[in-house]
Write a structure and sequence with these properties.
The complex is a heterodimer.
Chain A lengths: L1 H32 L5 H4 L9 E10 L5 E6 L5 E6 L3 E6 L4 E7 L7 E4 L5 E5 L4 E6 L11 E5 L4 E5 L6 E6 L4 E5 L5 E5 L6 E6 L7 E6 L4 E5 L5 E5 L6 E6 L5 E6 L4 E5 L4 E6 L8 E6 L5 E6 L4 E5 L4 E6 L6 E6 L6 E5 L3 E9 L5
Antiparallel strand pairs in A: 1-28, 2-3, 3-4, 4-5, 6-7, 7-8, 8-9, 10-11, 11-12, 12-13, 14-15, 15-16, 16-17, 18-19, 19-20, 20-21, 22-23, 23-24, 24-25, 26-27, 27-28
Chain B lengths: L13 H14 L9 E5 L2 E8 H12 L3 H13 L3 E3 L14 E4 L14 H12 L3 H4 L3 H13 L4 H16 L3 H18 L30 H16 L5 H15 L14 H4 L3 H6 L6 H7 L12 H7 L3 H6 L1 H13 L4 H13 L6 H13 L11 H11 L8 H22 L1 H9 L14 H7 L6 H17 L3 H4 L9 H47 L11 H10 L15 H16 L1 H24 L1 H9 L3 H14 L4 H25 L7 H12 L11 H12 L3 H16 L5 H16 L13 H4 L2 H26 L4 H5 L1 H7 L4 H12 L1
Helix pairs in contact in B: 2-3, 4-6, 4-7, 14-21, 17-18, 17-20, 19-20, 22-25, 22-37, 23-25, 25-26, 25-28, 25-29, 25-31, 25-33, 25-34, 25-37, 25-40, 27-28, 27-37, 28-29, 28-31, 28-37, 30-31, 30-34, 31-33, 31-34, 32-35, 33-34, 33-35, 34-35, 37-39
Classes of the chains: A mainly beta, B mainly alpha.
């Protein structure tokens, strides 16, 4: 009986897989029908951004191990960063002072995030947990820590969805989850990836209830936070998707992958609209972010560099060196005035650059 | 989710595939690979080697890239062990010169099968101990490693030594050259896999199970649920409406085009980017209101008082879309204010309440849902919103199981139908909005003509580069080494190590340029140093009153003074212009204003001033309400007088002018205070801010602690740096103010004293350059530059107000280019300067 059951099941899995295949083909046909022009063509009329004046502004030194993740505070000058040795540091990036240093009871703190109020940070990693720390100047931050949620595998990314009261996490157990900070209750879980979730990002809209996730199954999925359903999926990457970021317009998603490409997927056209790659770029991209207009896409790579892409012209604007090991995380500050990068070389940097008007 | 047939036992990042492809091409000497041959080095011949620059050249040609990028790739390949330097066994670094490298045997390429284990390492190490000590002797870290291995692998040690002996014996049969090559390859292999301590290894294992060397199962086995879910999703996707790619792309391009103006990484920010200038003004101008959403919510009531004047640009942005408006707290508040005036703000309040609900803790959901229902939806609710029956039904359905999404349908209805299609367009068309736009602050309009970087130029001028400047330069050149600059930077740098040459060149250019530009621009700047602060100050004084202003057509400049009188009803003296000797001036002022209103150019300028006034009012009010009130409301007459006298003693200037300056100082002090406060909104415990404030003040070397509170500093430097009269005077007034500002501590006073002394020591000549000893010049150049610019702005404002009476006073005033530009009563020379500055 048992055997038979199993066989039945495998048959259905097979048939379902087949059905999925045919559906995919149809879908691809549908998408192709509407594919009438390329982004570079549309962007032809725009001026080229050909030279960026680069200003390394700050170097944040203090981690004793690889920096794995960082996040800007909403106040635009503080940064939280986490590292391989279990340290989490809150920086005043403007003065480069360390304001708090917290030691986590785990190594490889792969995710950290600032709450929208700036009064709370969350982090987690190989401990499979997401822990929040209220920030206060009076007492030791770690005294008030609170474990909010636990996954069955490492936690790879976390983000506060416009609220101090909730936290959204992605995990190596291939799920994402929404937690209630106060009670630690699991509000919603998101199943659909078939491998480790590596990155998540919220839709930029105030009213948005969607977020995007990227995973080692090479898929990029868009989710509805209310229902827990996946509402849209994109494939195209040839390897792990390490990073996802909504375009500021909310109509597209930028991704960075181990296949050494970054891509742009449009939600309305329902397809990939741009691929940012070069033959000379061999190594995977770990982290991507857009400038506030969405014109520039910054991507940190395993070859220690940051590439700056013109998203519309699909061309590289410039290439930044500086870190002495992989660039693991990168984020444009909330008001777009600077770019922070974190690296396995133990440092974080704040970079400013600008289209140069003088030395064109 | 296509089924992945790859063997998941071994996870292998795709980069390895690419690297191997590239290295194979390199080794293919017959088809244009990297030339490998025996190289002669002195008298010895080195087999199977290639030179650094051949490799770089090859990469550049093959990939069509610049030298810097080729160098980076070559170094990566070397780090991964695809080739290695022959003469340097410690560092895996590729140099773009004639140094020699050798390809690694593919057998030793990384990530082939599995990571090497300790037994192999032990064999390798013991092999080396069996051989010629001179050539094969172990490094210290290797000796240590070997003794550890001996302990850990004690039971296998016999086997290990046996193996080692065997291998040594075998290798004896090889030709000398071959032996040399294979020895070096083996050694390089272990250099990569067992790096000396402190060295970076690119092969460091990642603790994430699925990404480590031996991978494990990459993909979870699919369950039937997964498949069903996938099919479901695909079906839904098929029926999804999608737009033509051209349409989507057009939309995106348009979006980007609109927002590029608001992108600080593309369009320089006004007045300056804080990260570049160290000047926090930009952040202050764009900071959100302190009133946070949750506070709003508690009472469902928005504070009526306007606590901020947003910048013009920010206001303009609100017109881009409703989303823009409501995502800016200030915008949301203005919108609410507007709707309240129209008695139709229940919709926006409902919308905000639901937004808040959505962000609430789980435990609060139930009562919040009820509260919202009672307030907005229940029949006869105090603030009933108008939704259609269908939506109402839905809501009532949802109310049975209250969640954070209970009111989503109603919110959606309100948002799209009422707010977005009705209220929002009305708001944007309304006089109210136009007023906001008109009164919005426009930080330094002229600045747009300068690229950034300009600032530096000015400062680096003729004065001997001071310490800070040097540092800065060092930094920047360091930066390039570190950051290596953009590709293009390397062009023409002729194989120099990095782009630093380029950077240097730039700074060189800057310096050479200085001579032209600075003479005039500085002329104009210096006298106004104090004014910068003053502008900000003005507002502070009038803050209380001006916030109530409705921004009618009354000339803004007038308002301040009027307001002051009103606010400080007891004493006229409080008004800086009207006090004492300055009285005639104030009259002139008003006269100027009148004339201004008639001549459109002037009036423009005036509006600017007023904007600034208002803005700074906001600032002060918002952040240092109390102190500001004290300032403005207190009959500070006697104190002021006293202060005035001080400057007079020191400066030979006419009393009138000193007066004026006094007022500006006051302003500056307030501005300083408020600025620093602004940087750290009071709601957050801002210990560091306070600290820094006091620090700066107490510390004579104010400028050195720059980083802590830039704004403050700036005020000070503006006062002191110029070395002109204005600063001197300004400081002393500050002192006077101190008592009135009860909130500020006495320490402040002290410092100020010091400062003033300082200033007094400064050369009085208005035209003097900031010299290197003056505290001001210790500022990092960019900062000073920024300041200058700000000042200019300020000046402009200032000038406008005082143009009439001051012209005779200091020659420098006439020079202010901004003013000229603004009023269009252009002195041609200035315009020229300006132009040169801008385009150099």
């Amino acid at each position: 009986m048992d055997l038979e059951n199993k066989e039945n099941q495998s048959e259905t899995i097979e048939s379902l897989t087949k059905e999925a295949e045919t559906l995919k083909k149809k879908l691809e046909d549908e998408r192709q029908k509407l594919n009438d022009v390329t982004l570079a063509q549309v962007a032809e009329r725009l001026d080229i951004i050909n030279y960026m004046n680069i200003k390394p502004r700050r170097t944040l030194k203090g981690h004793q191990a690889k920096v794995l993740c960082s996040d800007w505070s909403p106040d635009k000058r503080h940064i939280v960063s986490s590292s391989q040795d279990g340290k989490m540091i809150i920086w005043d990036a403007f003065t480069t002072n360390k304001e708090h240093a917290v030691t986590m009871p785990t190594t490889w703190v792969m995710a950290c995030a600032y709450a929208p109020s700036g009064n709370l940070v969350a982090c987690g990693g190989l401990d499979n947990k997401v822990t929040v720390y209220p920030l206060s100047l009076e007492e030791d931050v770690s005294l008030k820590k609170k474990t909010v949620g636990t996954h069955t595998s490492y936690m790879s990314c976390c983000i506060f969805p416009n609220s101090d009261q909730q936290i959204l996490t992605g995990s190596g157990d291939s799920t994402c989850a929404l937690w209630d900070v106060e009670s630690g209750q699991l509000l919603q879980s998101f199943h659909g990836h078939s491998s480790d979730v590596m990155a998540i990002d919220l839709a930029p809209s105030e009213t948005g209830n969607t977020f995007v996730s990227g995973s080692c199954d090479k898929m990029v999925l868009i989710w509805d936070m209310r229902t827990g359903n996946c509402v849209q999926s994109f494939e195209g990457h040839e390897s792990d998707v390490n990073s996802v970021k909504f375009h500021p317009s909310g109509d597209a998603v930028g991704t960075g992958s181990d296949d050494a490409t970054c891509r742009l997927f449009d939600l309305r056209a329902d397809k990939e609209i741009a691929i940012y790659s070069k033959e000379s770029i061999i190594f995977g991209s770990n982290s991507v972010d857009f400038s506030v207009s969405g014109r520039l896409l910054f991507a940190g790579y395993n070859d220690y560099t940051v590439n700056v892409w013109d998203t519309l012209k699909c061309a590289r604007v410039c290439l930044l060196y500086g870190h002495e090991n992989r660039v693991s995380c990168l984020q444009v500050s909330p008001d777009g005035t600077a770019l922070s990068t974190g690296s396995w070389d133990y440092t974080l940097r704040v970079i400013f650059f600008c289209k140069n008007y003088i030395f064109v | 989710m296509e089924p992945d047939h790859r063997d998941h036992k071994c996870h292998r990042p795709s980069a390895f595939q690419k690297m191997e492809g590239l290295v194979r091409e390199m080794q293919d000497t017959e088809h244009g690979g990297v030339p490998v041959r025996s190289q002669k080095l002195f008298l010895t011949s080195i087999p199977a080697a290639f030179m650094g620059y051949d490799l770089i050249e090859w990469l550049m040609e093959r990939l069509g890239i610049e030298e810097s990028e080729a160098l980076n790739i070559a170094n990566q390949l070397c780090q991964y062990g695809y080739f290695f330097p022959i003469s340097d066994s410690k560092n895996l670094v590729v140099k773009d010169d004639s140094s020699l490298y050798r390809f690694q045997n593919p057998y030793y390429w990384p990530w082939q099968n599995r990571p090497p284990d300790n037994v192999e390492y032990a064999i390798y190490l013991s092999k080396r101990t069996l051989r010629n000590k001179q050539r094969h002797g172990l490094e210290e870290y290797e000796i240590e490693a070997m003794s550890n291995l001996k302990k850990n692998l004690a039971n296998k040690w016999d086997f290990i030594t046996q193996q080692a002996e065997e291998q040594v014996k075998l290798s004896k049969g090889l030709k000398k050259a071959d032996k040399l090559v294979s020895d070096s390859q083996e050694r390089a292999y272990w250099r990569v896999h067992r790096p000396p301590p402190g060295m970076v290894s690119s092969l460091e294992p990642c603790p994430v199970p699925t990404r480590s060397w031996n991978g494990g199962t990459r993909t979870r086995k699919k369950t039937i649920e997964d498949c069903k879910r996938e099919v479901e999703l695909l079906k839904n996707s098929l029926s999804r409406t999608r737009v033509k790619v051209s349409q989507a792309l057009e939309g995106m391009v348009q979006y980007v085009e609109i927002y590029m103006e608001y992108d600080p990484l593309i369009t320089p920010t006004q007045p300056s980017n804080p990260w570049v200038s160290e000047d926090l003004t930009y952040w202050q101008l764009n900071s959100p209101l302190e009133v946070m959403m949750h506070r709003l919510r508690k009472s469902f009531e928005v504070m009526v008082k306007r606590v901020d004047v947003p910048t013009e640009k920010r206001v303009r942005r609100w017109a881009l879309s409703m989303e823009e408006l409501v995502s800016d707290p200030t915008g949301l508040q203005e919108f609410t204010n507007y709707l309240r005036k129209e008695y139709s703000h229940e919709n926006i309040r409902f919308w905000m309440a639901v937004q808040d609900l959505r962000r609430s803790a789980q435990s609060q959901i139930a009562w919040k849902v009820q509260e919202i229902f009672d307030e907005f939806l229940a029949p006869g609710a105090p603030c009933e919103i108008n939704i259609d029956g269908k939506t109402m039904e839905k809501v009532q359905q949802e109310m049975k199981t209250p969640t954070r999404f209970t009111f989503d349908s109603a919110q959606e209805h309100v948002y799209t139908l009422l707010l977005k299609k009705d209220c929002y367009p009305r708001f944007i068309r309304s006089e109210y909005y136009k007023n906001l736009l008109a009164t919005g602050i426009q930080p330094s309009q002229k600045k747009r003509f300068f690229g950034f970087g300009q600032t530096k130029k000015k400062v680096s001028t003729t004065t001997a580069p001071n310490q800070q400047l040097l540092q800065q330069q060092q930094q920047s050149s360091q930066g390039t080494v570190v950051m290596c600059g953009a590709l293009s930077k390397r062009r023409g740098s002729d194989r120099s190590l990095s782009g630093s040459a380029h950077e240097l060149a730039i700074s060189g250019v800057k310096e050479t340029k200085v001579p032209h530009s600075h003479s005039q621009s500085n002329l104009s700047d210096i006298p106004y140093r104090g004014d910068l602060a003053r502008i900000a100050k003005l507002p502070a004084v009038t803050a209380v009153t001006s916030c109530n202003q409705t921004h009618s057509n009354v000339s803004p400049v007038k308002k301040p003074s009027i307001a002051i009188v009103a606010g400080a009803s007891t004493s006229e003296d409080v008004c800086p212009w009207e006090s004492g000797a300055a009285e005639p001036r104030s009259r002139k002022n008003s006269a100027a204003i009148d004339s201004g209103s008639s001549s459109s150019d002037l009036s423009v300028a005036i509006t600017e001033v007023s904007e600034k006034v208002q803005r700074s009012c906001m600032l002060t009010q918002q952040h240092t309400l109390d102190s500001c009130r004290n300032l403005s409301a207190q009959p500070a007459e006697p104190q002021r007088r006293a202060s005035v006298s001080v400057p007079i003693q020191h400066s030979s200037e006419p009393a009138g002018s000193s007066r004026r300056k006094v007022s500006s100082f006051e302003e500056s002090s307030a501005a300083g205070g408020s600025a620093s406060a602004a940087a750290h909104p009071p709601s957050k415990p801002s210990a560091p801010a306070n600290l820094s404030e006091t620090d700066n003040k107490t510390d004579e070397k104010v400028s050195k602690t720059l980083k802590k509170s830039h704004s403050l500093l700036k005020t000070f430097t503006s006062a002191t740096g110029g070395g002109s009269n204005a600063p001197t005077i300004s400081v002393s007034p500050v002192m006077d103010d101190v008592p009135s500002e009860e909130s500020s501590s006495n320490t402040r006073k002290d410092e100020k004293d010091e400062l003033s002394i300082y200033c007094i020591q400064e050369p009085m000549a208005p035209l003097a350059e900031p010299d290197s000893e003056s505290p001001g010049s210790e500022l990092p150049p960019s900062e000073v530059g920024e300041m200058l610019e700000r000042e200019q702005e300020v000046e402009q404002g200032e000038c406008e107000g005082q143009v009439a009476q001051e012209q005779g006073e200091a020659k420098a005033n006439d020079v202010c280019p901004w003013e000229d530009e603004e009023t269009c009563k252009v002195d041609t020379p200035f315009v020229k300067t300006y132009a040169t500055l801008g385009y150099l």
